[in-house]
Every structure is written in C-alpha cells, then in structure tokens.
Write a structure and sequence with these properties.
The complex is a heterodimer of chains A (307) and B (238). Chain A is mainly alpha-helical. Chain A has 11 helices and 4 strands. Chain A has a domain of 211 residues. In chain A, 73% of the residues lie in helices and 4% in strands. Chain A has a two-stranded antiparallel sheet with strand order 1-4. A two-stranded antiparallel ribbon of chain A has the order 2-3. In chain B, the strands form 2 sheets. In chain B, strands 6-7-8-3-9-10 form a 6-stranded mixed β-sheet, sandwiched between helices. A 4-stranded antiparallel β-sheet of chain B has the order 2-1-4-5, with helices on one face. In chain B, helix 2 packs parallel to helix 5. Chain B is globular. Classes of the chains: A mainly alpha (307), B alpha/beta (238).
C-alpha cells in the first residue's frame, strides 16, 4: 500500500509537468494541425537558460525561492522569444505546404535546438542547486518533498489560469475561433498570424516553466533532456485527445501516474527481471494502446455538427 | 448617391482556370443589389475576392480605398462584412460567443454600444437570445443562418455581403431569412446579395447583375431583369 501511495505522489508530480508540456503540443495542434516536435527542446532550453541565471545567483545571499523566480522569469522570456522565432522562421513559410513538410521541419528544428544547446551549455550534466524548500513529509507511510508540492501547486495554478484565458477572455475566444476556422475568424477582424504567434509564445512560456520545475525535481539538467520528455508529453496529449486542453491536462497527469505505478511494480511483477529503469517503456505502451483502441484520445470526441 | 463599392476588371483564377473573367460593377450607398446566376458562374468567388479571401487581379475601390491592398482581417473595421456560403458559424463556440466574435474588432470603450447592438440583434432574431448558451453546432441550418447574419451585424457593417443565405433551407425559413435581410437593409446597411434563388433575390433587391461563366452578362434594375425573357427562361423557370 505504501508503494502505491508513494508512486501515486511521484506520478502526480511528474504528471503535472507532462501536463504543462502537453498543453503546448495540443494548443499548436489545435490551431495549426501541426505536431511541433521541437516543443520538448523548448523545455530543455527553459531548464538550461534558467540555470545560467540561477547558478551565479545561488550564493548571492538572496533567498533561494527568489533566485528560482528570477531564473524562471529569464527562462520564460528566452523561451517565448524562441517559440515566436521558430514559428516565424520555420513554420510560417510552410503554412500552406503539404502536412508532411512542417512535420519534418519540426524534427529538423528539434535537432538544431539540441545542437545549439550543446554548443552553448556543453555536453555535461548540470546539477541544479537546491534552492527551493527541501523538507520532506510523511503521510500514511509515503513521503513527499516540499519541492513536489510546489511543482503540483504551481502547475495546477498555471493551468487554471490558461483555462480561464482560453474560455473566458476575448483573446481566448479569438483563439478558439481561429482554431476552428481561421478564414472566418479573419472576417471578424482576427489576424490569424498574431493568434498563431501568441499560441506559440504561450505554449513556450508553459514549456519554460516545465523545464524549471523538472530540473528542480531531478536536480539535474542536460542538453538531451527535452527529447524523451517531449515524446512523453506528446503521448500525454494524444492520450487526452490532441487539440483538447482539458485532455492534455488529464492525459499528462494520467501518464505520470501510469508511469510511476508501472515503475513501482514492474520489479515485483517480473520477479526482479525488469527494474524501474524500464519506466520509459510504459509511456510508449500507452501511446500504442491509445493509437490502436482510441485514436481520438480520451476527450477527443467531436462536437456534433449539424447542417 | 455615393458609390460605396467600385469594382474594375476583377479576375480570379483557380490554378489555370479562370473563375471570374474581368468583371466590373458598382454598388451605391444604401442600395440592395443582387448577383444571380447558375452554379459555377463565379458568384461566390466574386464575394470571396471582395472579402480578400482569395487572391485576385483588378481593382476594388471601397469608400475611396483600394480593397485589394488590404488583408482580410482589416475589412470589418472598415465596415465591410461577409456572411459566407454555408454560414461559417463557429460550431464549438456558443451562440453568445459567436455574436461576441462579430464585435471582436470594436474597441473596449464601445462596450455600451456593443451591448445595445446585441439587444437589437436579439430583438431582430429572438431565437438567438433563447439559444445564447447553446453551442452553435447544435443549431438547425436556419438558426445558423440567422446567427451568421446576427454575427455580421454585431460588427456594424456599412456594406454586407451575403452569400446564398437561402441555401439548403426550407421554404418557410428562406422567407424568414429574407425578411431579416430586408429589415437590415431598412436600417441603412448596403447589401450585396448573391443568390441562386433568383425570384426571391429580384423581389427584394433594387438592382441586379446576371453572371454567367465568370462574366456579367446582364445588368439592370431588378424589375427589368425579372421581366427580361432571357432571365425568365434561364433563371425563373418560365
């Protein structure tokens, strides 16, 4: 029982990070029909660029959380600029090209960003200074850290903010209208290019936050960290129903929990043959399962359209 | 009366195929003008070109400005609205949200006037008020057409382009839609109507153009067109 609860807590933490990243995939897909495979790299660049600020400030005497906030702020700015630029340079010229072209371009952008990060931050693993409250607590035999609480709460509040933005504001309405029909939204005076840029910028800001949180969780950052994380978040988006905001959040949390429980029990179930380092396998089992049994995802049902 | 819209030698091509072949026409302020013609004559293409949804050649002057130099999303703030063929309501937005999208371009400080316009639209189209919380995709075809017109009105257009508002609707609904169009015109909105239902179009409009394979073949007052034996034979089924 304690393993179950323990892995549930770990899964929830990881899952809320997947959810943040999955939102970026699903928002871009919703508006452009494009799988932005470079999105995972934006998370990585968020993590590493925040470190660039956090590392030298760590011993400055400023309180730890303030340093992390400054690092986060910087990472968000960098990633927003990056998301804007990538859309402008790589995807916009291919707006009317066959769907395969932007997809391949996204993979290309992913490689370019990874190599660029390697040139800037090197190949080594960077340790992340522990600046957030690091106390641990126990409930019913399972332990959780204060960092985990911060991750879950920050992710949840951010996602609530995004949901309000999309569902309750004039801008969100324009985003949904553009996602549904950009030409008609244009007739209402919506500049689709501006909305698309904004979608990339918002998604990238969420990715930066995810990058800072994930590196705080594991205490480590690396130029290669975005690849697997990106694939898993993409899986989460597909699991929830790509294009659907609520789906991305549910899919992210669900995937984190499935993965953590799988990793927690795989040793027992296989008599010790397979260990918890097989954790990554579960996400892809889930992806294959969803694609076979429910390709539209958990919440990806279409609204009935008459006439 | 002042010329509101002046089109000179408009040409639209789909790939190598010419859909509109150098047509010229004008609409004066306060007029109700229709374009009738068979399927594939280029009527919808003409409206889409006017709304800058398709690349075109030739000149389009609107209130002294070159329309063909503007992007599509700049038109509504200049008072030009299109109710597209097939209605084009946002199915996954509610009725109220669709109407709010119609006023998207209007500045925040006009919120009082926007609310007054919403009341006016609700008065003209009471069905929309009843169904304001419903997703637009769940409305019937006629209700969607009403919503599309109401949404365009929320933008306070001076020139309203209407593309086949009667398409796919039951006769009773068609009559209702045309009543609404008439009421809108009575409020001083200039209307350019594209219709396959030539009889009805010529009944409500003051002037008309007949399009045939991308060209304007006849232009006259609606009454004269309705009496023209060629129109009667080809479009009024007599």
């Amino acid at each position: 029982m304690d393993i179950f609860l323990q892995q549930l807590i770990n899964g929830l933490t990881l899952g809320s990070i997947y959810a943040l990243v999955a939102l970026g995939y699903t928002m871009v897909y919703g508006i452009l029909g494009l799988i932005n495979f470079a999105h995972g790299e934006v998370v990585m660049i968020g993590a590493l660029s925040s470190l660039t600020i956090i590392r030298p400030l760590a011993d400055s005497g400023l309180p730890g959380p303030v340093v992390v906030l400054i690092g986060l702020f910087f990472a968000v700015l960098v990633c927003m600029a990056l998301g804007f630029t990538v859309e402008r340079v790589a995807y916009r010229p291919l707006r009317n090209a066959p769907r395969l072209a932007p997809l391949i371009t996204a993979i290309g952008v992913s490689i370019v960003l990874q190599q660029l990060a390697m040139l800037i931050w090197g190949r080594s693993y960077h340790s992340v200074p522990a600046l957030l409250p690091s106390g641990t607590h126990e409930v019913l035999g399972a332990t959780f850290t204060e960092v985990q609480v911060i991750i879950v709460v920050v992710a949840a509040v951010t996602m609530m903010g995004l949901v309000l933005l999309v569902n309750r504001t004039r801008l969100g309405r324009a985003m949904r209208a553009t996602a549904e029909n950009p030409a008609i939204a244009g007739l209402m005076g919506v500049d689709a290019n501006r909305i698309i840029s904004l979608t990339f910028v918002i998604g990238s800001a969420l990715a930066a936050l995810a990058g800072v949180l994930v590196s705080a969780n594991y205490g480590i950052a690396h130029y290669n960290m975005g690849f697997i994380l990106g694939l898993k978040a993409f899986t989460a988006a597909v699991l929830g129903g790509i294009g659907n905001l609520a789906g991305a959040m549910v899919g992210g949390v669900l995937l984190g929990v499935i993965e953590a429980l799988g990793a927690g029990y795989i040793g027992d179930l296989t008599g010790g043959v397979l260990g918890s380092h097989y954790q990554d396998v579960f996400a892809f089992f889930v992806l294959i399962g969803v694609l076979i049994f429910r390709p539209s995802g958990l919440m990806g049902e279409k609204v009935s359209e008459r006439a | 009366m002042a010329v509101l819209l002046d089109v000179l030698n408009l040409e639209v091509h789909y790939g190598g195929i010419a859909a509109v072949r150098g047509i010229s026409f004008a609409v004066e302020s306060g007029e109700m003008v229709c374009v009738i013609g068979a399927n594939g004559a280029g009527k919808t293409t003409t409206l889409k070109a006017l709304a800058r949804m398709l690349p075109s050649a030739g000149e389009m002057h609107y209130r002294g400005e070159r329309l063909d130099k503007l992007p599509s999303h700049a038109l509504i703030s200049r008072g030009l609205a299109l109710v597209p063929e097939g209605r084009g309501v946002f199915a996954r937005l509610t009725v109220a949200e669709n109407l709010a999208m119609g006023a998207y371009h209007r500045p925040r400080h006009e919120s009082g006037e926007i609310a007054a316009d919403l009341d006016r639209v609700h008065e003209l189209l009471p069905r929309l008020k009843e169904r304001r919380g419903q997703l637009a995709g769940t409305l019937s075809g006629g209700e969607q057409q009403m919503l599309a017109i109401g949404r365009a009105l929320m933008g306070r257009p001076q020139l309203l382009l209407l593309d086949e508002p009667s398409m796919g609707l039951a006769p009773l609904m068609v009559r209702k839609v045309f009543e609404v169009v008439r009421a809108v015109a009575a409020q001083g909105v200039t209307i350019l109507l594209v219709e396959q239902n030539a009889r009805l179009a010529l009944e409500v409009c003051g002037r008309g153009y007949v399009m045939e394979s991308g060209q304007i073949t006849l232009a006259d007052t609606a009454a004269a067109l309705a009496a023209d034996p060629r129109v009667r034979a080809a479009y009024l089924g007599e």
